[in-house]
Each structure stands twice: as C-alpha cells, then as structure tokens.
Description:
The protein has helices at 8-20, 46-60, 77-90, 104-114, 152-158, 167-183, 205-210, 219-229, 236-248, and strands at 2-5, 27-30, 96-101, 124-129, 134-135, 141-142, 163-164, 187-192, 195-199, 217-218, 252-256, 264-268. It is of the alpha/beta class. The chain folds into 2 domains: 2-180, no CATH class; 205-268, Arc Repressor Mutant, subunit A, CATH 1.10.10. A 5-stranded mixed β-sheet has the order 2-1-3-4-7, sandwiched between helices. Strands 10-12-11 form a 3-stranded antiparallel β-sheet. The N and C termini lie far apart (74 Å). The mean pLDDT is 91.
Amino acid sequence: MIHIVFQHNDIEALRKSFELAPSLQGDILKIADDFAVGPVEGIYTQAGIEARKQWWREVLAGGNYEGLVDNGSQSDDQQTVQTILDRLREDPEEVIWIWAAQNKHDVCGYYWLISQLKDFQGRIFLLYLNNLPFINEKGNLFYPANLFEIPAREFVKAQKLARPVTLSEFEIDPDEWHRLCSENKGVRILEGGKKLVQFDYDFFDQDLKKLITGDWIKANKLIHQYLSKARHTTGDAYLLWRIKQLVISGQLDVQGEPKNMKDFEIKLKAELPVSGS
C-alpha cells in the first residue's frame, strides 16, 4: 500500500495513525509542489515543467526559500509519479490511497496526479475529507481543512472512507484539470467539493493592502496577520513575492532591502504634497 499526501505535515500525522491501525501501514509519498499557484499550462510537457520551475525560481529569488527549486531538498514530483507507476506495474497487488482534505492545495495536487494513474483504475483509492466532521483533541466536533489537523485516532476512522476512484472520475477530472491549465491563470481557489475557480496572480493583493497603513510594518508581521485573518490564504513565499511586486509597482514605500521577510518594512505610499498648498 502506498499513501499519497500533498503537504509535509500530513506525513507525520498519517504515520502516527499506523501505530493504532497496523493494517494502514504503508509507504507515504508526498507530492511537493503547490499547484494551487503558478503557471500550469502545458504542465505535462518538458517545456511546461521547466516554465513552472523558472517561475518558482523568480518567486523565491532573494527570499527565505531562494534556491529551493534546485538544491535537491524537495522531492521531484515527476520522479515520485514514476516510482508509483513502476510499483504498480511490478506488483499487481499494489494499491494507492490518495489522501486529500478540502483545501485548494490538496485538490489541485489530486487533479495534477489523477490523470497519470488512469491505467490502474480499480487500484487507486481516494479518501477525500469533504465537509466531514471529526473529533479534535478537546473532544469537540470540527471540520478539518487539512489532514494534519486530524488526531491519529480519527485517521483510523477515516480509512473507512476509502473508495476506488471511479471510471467516470478518471474521465471527467483530467478533462477539468486540462481546462484549468489551458486558462493560464496564476491562482486557483476551491469553491467547494472539487470545484476550482481561477484568478490572476494579483488575487491576494487587495486583502494584503487592507492590512497596510501609513505606519511601517515588517513584511513577516504583515504576512502573519494576513494568514491569521484572511479567508483565502496561500504560502508565505507567495505572499512575500506579492509584497515585493507591490513595492516594485510603486504602491508601497519600503525601508530596508526587500529580500527575506524579516529584512524590510513597508507602508502605504506617502502622498506628495500638492504644489502651492
């Protein structure tokens, strides 16, 4: 059994559940990229893959995660898929469990992955925690947005949700993903179920600017405030990039060198006094 997750913190959460349910024991593989942001046009071609890598290089340049694309610290998603395919071909008893919570990161990862597994219909299982209630550590009912929020004992219950990806899903879901890829947008938001809608790269800018005043604020503090208050969130690296774009476009004043998020402060652009006033 191979378990597929889409966020790093999901790995440890799922592994803890193995101690309570040995029948769940299996290898855990992670799809590393966040397909909810960035270019996905031609994503299965070498040109599309390289264009996406180059975009990430530009987003991460000068920031806390510079070099992440090429330093080998992140798993290669294409190689991960090849490993999955090889194991499915070599062992006719091998099965795949794809774990996804109701968030854009997991759903985009699922869409990217599923069309590459279509030759193994009947051996690919999905555990999509779509609007399903769980019990948290305090004994309260909650609806997790991420797998890693679920206590280990609840993962054991979640295994009952595993179902084969249907033939219809293998036909419809890849078509929906290819449609999204062809729109060539930069941000994907989950509306509900598995429905994604797309927006331009500046989608988060207006909500970011609502938190910026005429007083200086560190970029890292602004990002923390945004992530704790905004309805739609994304990774801190993407938000840092958007802040830098607002600086470059002249919408913000900056103090310090806009590199790492702790290195500089920003505030709303000071208005020039009107001549003759």
